[in-house]
Write a structure and sequence with these properties.
Layout: E1 6-9, E2 14-15, H1 24-28, E3 31-39, E4 42-43, H2 46-59, H3 66-80, E5 83-91, E6 111-119, E7 127-129, E8 135-137, E9 142-151, H4 167-183, E10 192-199, E11 204-207, E12 211-216, E13 245-246, H5 257-265, E14 274-275, E15 286-293, E16 297-305, E17 311-313
Parallel strand pairs: 9-10, 9-16, 13-14
Antiparallel strand pairs: 1-2, 1-6, 3-4, 3-5, 5-6, 7-8, 10-11, 12-15, 15-16, 16-17
């Protein structure tokens, strides 16, 4: 498989193929995708990605043999050694005209499977060790900003899915890039790494490319960009120190692989993650904030700029 090229997988073989303009993923966003990091020829969080394959195929009524597909993915990961595998699964072309589709005898529709293998560095300079001999990459601290773009609220069957319809995230990412461009010079690189997004109901849900976790101060305090903190959040106990919250994915957002890894990791700790909405009134009272995704791991924030211009700062880890 040539680097950075797409192939179409038929589970029995893989061939370079041209995408038809009748592909339902292109025409209707009728499908989903997942992005997997690879280190030393191994797919990171493989079990979680398989859970996504199974749950998304069931939600979209697609026939998908996840075990056979994983065998192929492992082979490509071994060839890649380090980098990223991106998998796109779409419903196969239908004889039914328009949006409609006809399930096969097994109850689901046949699908097309597309795979891209991209060599790239997966940052592992710092990491948080887990009990199962795995680790979560930990990125350098950066800053975040509240964006005016909003993401869609979805029906229960689609909420949380990593579907191909990501136009709201596209526009939000464009807003973030425009903000960065305003502060970019030949000598100054903007430290803004991510933008915080609301859904159409006004709840703060996730980042442009990531899920979000946060902590709150115990009681409201005076607005300050340098308030004191009682927690000692070294990199070794960053996750275990204090109570973490994360917004629900019940009506919007993507239930990410790394989000679930963190929820499961802390499920047996003294402070399991609490699913809690994040509202405007909470933002000035945040004491910690990080974004996460399966490729970059945890991205801790040093500050968050609100719509008012106030900057809420967080203790360095």
């Amino acid at each position: 498989m040539s680097p950075n090229s797409w192939i179409c997988i038929h589970l029995s073989d893989a061939t370079e193929a041209k995408l038809s303009l009748d592909n339902r993923g292109l025409a209707y966003s009728d499908g989903f995708f997942t992005t997997m990091g690879v280190i030393d020829g191994q797919i990171l969080w493989l079990d979680y990605h398989q859970q996504r394959l199974v749950s998304h195929a069931a939600a979209l009524q697609l026939q998908l043999n996840s075990d056979s597909l994983l065998t192929i993915l492992k082979m490509h990961a071994k060839q890649l050694q380090q980098g990223m595998l991106k998998l796109i699964i779409t419903r196969a072309e239908q004889e039914v005209r328009g949006y409609g589709y006809t399930p096969n005898t097994g109850g689901g529709s046949a699908c097309e499977i597309w795979l891209k293998s991209s060599p790239m560095a997966i940052t592992t300079a710092q990491s948080l060790p887990l009990a199962n001999n795995q680790f979560i990459p930990l990125q350098p601290a950066a800053s975040a900003i509240c964006l005016s773009s909003q993401i869609a609220c979805l029906p229960p069957m689609l909420a949380g899915l990593k579907s191909l319809n990501r136009l709201d995230n596209v526009l939000a990412s464009g807003e973030l890039q425009a903000i960065k461009a305003k502060t970019w010079t030949d000598t100054i690189k903007p430290s803004i790494a991510e933008g915080l997004l609301r859904d159409m109901s006004g709840q703060w849900v996730e980042g442009t490319m990531s899920n979000v976790f946060y902590q709150l101060v115990e009681a409201p305090v005076a607005k300050s960009s340098n308030r004191p903190h009682s927690q000692n959040n070294s990199s070794s106990n960053y996750l275990s120190a204090g109570q973490w919250y994360t917004p629900s994915m019940a009506q919007s957002g993507v239930a990410g692989v790394m989000r679930q890894v963190i929820i499961d990791t802390l499920s047996t700790s003294e402070n399991p993650v609490i699913i809690r909405s994040l509202q405007d009134k909470d933002l000035p009272h945040l004491s910690q904030l990080f974004f996460c995704n399966a490729l970059r791991g945890i991205m801790p924030m040093s500050s968050l700029r609100l719509f008012s211009g106030e900057v809420v700062s967080f203790e360095a880890i």
